[in-house]
Amino acid sequence: MDLATFAPSPGVPATTTLEMLETPCLVLDADRMDRNIKRLRNRLNDLGVSLRPHLKTAKSIDVARRFMGAPEGPATVSTLKEAEQFAAAGVRDMIYAVGISPAKLARVVDLLAKGVDLVVILDTVEQAQAVAEASRNAGMPIPAMIEIDCDGHRSGVRPTDRAKLLEIGLVLAAGADLRGVLTHAGDSYKGGGVKAQQLYAEAERLAVVEAAQLLRSGGLPCPVVSVGSTPTAHHAKDLAGVTEVRAGVFVFFDLVMAGIGICQIDDIALSLLATVIGHQREKGWIITDGGWMSLSRDRGTSKQAVDHGYGLVCDIDGNVYGDIIVADANQEHGIIAVRPGSDARLPELAVGDRVRILPNHACATAAQHAAYHVVRGGSHAVEACWPRFGGW
Q: Any alpha helices (H) in the chain, and if so which ranges?
C-alpha cells in the first residue's frame, strides 16, 4: 500500500485552504502521520512481529487504509460500531479488544455470518460460558482470546493463575474457538524514561508468553500471542514468543505521548484549528473559539513534568509558540495564556487570526469531530476531508 497516495475528496474544492475552514475543526498533517506509521512498522519488522493497528484513535476509513498492512486487515477495534463500519469498508480480520458483554454477542455473530473474522476477548468463566452458548445457538464457533493482566492496570487474568486460565480455556475450546491470549501494558503510560519503558515492555511480553505456555501445557491451543501499547511498541527490545503487536495513537501521537518520551512535539500530526475571537489584555489572555467541546476535557499532561493545560498553541503553519498554552477552557471558549512560570510573551494575534492547538490526548480530541482536514507540512492547502465516526 502506498501511504503517500491520497484519494481525491469530493467534499473539498481544490482551492480550499486553512483560512477558509469553519472553526474549530481538526487538521491532520499527512507528512507527520506517514512518518509515524513508517517508524513503527520498520521497528516491528526489525523485531520480526506483525502490527495489528488499533483503529480506535482514528475511527476513519481513510486513515485506516493508510496504516493497516492490507485492506482486509489485520486491525484492532474498541467498539462494535468500529467493527461494523470497518467491516462495511472491507476489513475482515479484527480483534474487538474490550471485554465482551453477553448482550453484544448477537452483533458479533451477525458480523461473523457476513464473513468477518471478529475475535472477542474475555477474562471470566462467565463470559466464556456465554460465548460458548452463543456459538452453539448460532451454529458457528465464536473466536475468543483470554485477556491477561500484565501489570494490575485494568482487566485480565494473572498469568500465574493456572487454574483460572485452564478453566476459561477449556470452556472456550469445547464450545467456541480459543485463539490465544492478549494483554495491554497500561502502566507504560506512566512514563519513567527509556529503561522503565523497556521494563514495561518486557513485563508485557513475559506475561502473555507465560500464559500461552500454561495453556499449551494443558493441551489447549494458543496460536496468537498479542501485546500492545504505543509506549511498549516503541521500546520493546525482545518480542520472542509474541506473534503480533497492537498500537493505535502512534498514528497521530499527542502531548501525553511526547511527555513520556515516546515522540517529539514535531511528531504530533493532529491539531485543532481555532480562531481568535477576543482579548482580555489586562489578564494576559487571548480568547479563541476552541473550547473544551472541541479539545475535550482531557488534562492528561497535568501530572507530567510539563503541564500543557488543554493544549499547546502553534501558529497556523504548525510552528509551536514557546510556552503558550490553552490555560483554561469553557464549553466554546479557549483561553490562551503564557505558561505559568515562563517569561514568554503572548504572540500578537488579532481577532480573526487562526492558531493550531496540539492536543493532550489525540483520541479524545478527535472524538469531538466529524472529519479530518488533511494538509502536508506547513502548507495551508487542504488536500482532502476524511470523515470519522463515533458511537458504540
A: 30-47, 61-67, 80-88, 105-113, 125-138, 162-175, 194-217, 230-233, 255-259, 292-295, 362-366
In sequence order, what are the beta bridge partners of 271? 27
Name the 3-class secondary structure at 119.
strand
272 contacts 25 by C-beta, under 8 angstroms: yes
| Letter string b/e over residues 198-234, b meaning 16 or more CB atoms within 10 A of that residue's CB | bbbbbbbbebbbbbbebbeeeebebebbbbbbbbbbb
- Tell me the average pLDDT across 191-220: 96
Three cell numbers written together for 193: 524514561
Inter-CA distances, 353 with 259, 315, 316, 322, 389, Å: 28, 9, 8, 18, 29
Cβ-contact 203, 192 below 8 angstroms: no
15 contact partners, CB below 8 Å, separation of at least 6: none
pLDDT of residue 13 exceeding 80:
no
CB atoms within 10 A of CB 114: 12
Mean pLDDT of 320-347: 97
pTM for this structure? 0.93
Could you give the CA distance from residue 298 to residue 357 in angstroms, rounded to a whole number?
14
| Residue 319 DSSP symbol | P
Number of H helices, E strands in the chain: 11, 17
Nearest 5°: CA angle at 229, between 225 and 234?
Answer: 100
DSSP state, residue 313: E
Beta-ladder partners of 77: 96
Q: Provide the mean pLDDT of the chain.
A: 95
- Please give the grid coordinates belonging to residue 204: 508485557
- Say if residues 159 and 166 touch (Cβ distance below 8 Å): no
**Does residue 7 carry a pLDDT above 50?**
no
283 burial (CB, 10 Å; 0-12 / 13-18 / 19+) is exposed
Which of 9, 32, 49, 44 lies closest to 362 in space, CA to CA?
32
